[in-house]
């Protein structure tokens, strides 16, 4: 073997001077730079190693005079050598004993009778290299243990077959809320929230391979987590295991869910909404038109994009629009006056538009136009204008009370007939719906309110109802209230026009007729029931006299009964006559 030019520092623990000299000669043959220190017994060796452990190798003789327990000797020297490799030199030829010393941690076991310079040098160098590799392995394990324990991501080691926890880091403890001791009593199945079959299948198919899977886990407090799992097969303490990294993506999933909801809202508001959203460039050309234009104006967005806005605006309305556009650059947002816009059929629709200037926003780089179709409102406005004209005429030509109720403002307007019909002065009037309802007769109030619900809940356009209304002097008058409902652009009631007719005299007359009819019904019932009873008895007794007159012994009693029934019938007839006279 080539002599090593590096310095070798050896501690020889040997009580026999001859053996020490032999060892020194063997080492000198193989190494030029050699520093050998001898310890004649265990006590000296212990003192030397306590003072310094800066040796490349320790050669230990097992037969020392001051210690008889070989196992204790080996373990003590190993503890004091501070990871320096220890090679045992002994005269014992029992190989089983030698293997036993190796299990205690020595690097090699050599018999004194079999060694030479080459064998001794090889053993020392191999022990040093093995110790170096073991030290590197230990440092690597420590490094990875540190990475495992200090990783900000939850990590654990599982038994590859049972999926029981073998080790967990602090991040996993913090995330899931279990202690390490609790984890060691669990398997990863205890964390699964759902999809157990899918996870089991993935684990089984990748028993000896890497896999990545997204799962749902429960914490100790039953909070739901979304986890991105990356798992690799390893050997852990001689067991088939998996090291797993768990990336908590709960916030990411929630953010994605919010984004999805936001996109759905955008689609509902912009793409499928009732408003037309468009982006207009500085030259007033359409850069974007929302798909809602299809059902609002009956035209595809592609046929509008790139066209000039004024190509679709009615010629008579362009001036007022151009006059409003002058506010660009001075206001961030402003509303255009209503204007007519050509739809897909070439017909004119009324639009109402709000302009927002977002030319300085790189995501938009234009004007946002939010337009709403108000054609129906415009038509109703015209109809209302015509109706009001008729209303003015009718109000002047009729004695009925005309009312106009603004639903949004909760405000009544009355014609002058309210002073004549109900006697209220200007000071005694209030325009609210509550004032009106408070003057409805208590017996009629709930019925009127329920009937009015048809306007708001079922889209009822016309309502006619009779009820009693309190006058200024506290008396009640019967009125016939006939109302017509005007709706806004989305079909909600906006105004209710009513005509209220005083039907008190007619109602009194009808009530009198109803009472008379009730009397007549009572008289008819009396005639059909009360009169028939005595009359039937009289007719029966007469029939008995007629058929049995020669054989009757109680004729006198029969005649008395006939007389009594006749008197009863007379009383009934006189009663009917009295009731008839009272009514008429």
Proportion of residues in helical segments: 40-55%
Quickly count the helices: 18
Q: Return the CATH topology of the largest domain.
A: Rossmann fold
Quote the beta fraction. Answer: 15-25%
Q: Name the overall outline.
A: elongated
Number of domains: 5
Characterize the main sheet: 6 strands, antiparallel
Which structural class do you get from the secondary structure elements? alpha+beta
Q: Could you give the count of β-strands? A: 21
Q: CATH architecture of the largest domain, please?
A: 3-Layer(aba) Sandwich
Indicate the mean pLDDT: 82
Q: What is the C-alpha radius of gyration, as a whole number of Å?
A: 56 Å
Distance between the first and last residues' Cα = 153 Å
